[in-house]
Amino acid sequence: QVQLVESGGGLVQPGGSLTLSCAASGSIFSISAMGWYRQAPGKQRDLVARITSDGNTNYADSVKGRFTISRDNAKNTVYLQMNSLKPEDTAVYYCVLNLKRFSLSNFRDYWGQGTQVTVSS
Fold this sequence. Notes:
7-stranded mixed β-sheet, 4-stranded antiparallel β-sheet
C-alpha cells in the first residue's frame, strides 16, 4: 500500500501565498518524478509543475516565475510554493508521484486525494 497525503490548501487573497505539501508513505522502493496538477470546475486536469529525481523542473507557462516545486527525498515529500496567487489559480490541486514499490516492480503513477486552493478577495 502507498498513501499520499496532501496538505496546505485553503482560501487566500489575490497576491497571497500558499505552500502545498504531499507526503508519501507505505511500501516505497524508489521515487522517480513528482508533480502537481490542478483542475478547475468544468475544466480538464492540467500539469502545473514537475520535478525529476535529479532535480530538473518544468512549469506550466501560467505559473512560471510565481510557483516553485521542490522535493525532499528523505521524507518522500514534494512541495509547491505558490506566490502572487491569482483568482485563476483557483482549483483542486493534485500531487502525483511516479514510484515503484519493490525492486522488481514497474514505476507507476500514484495520485493524492486533492486539496482545494481558492484565491478570492
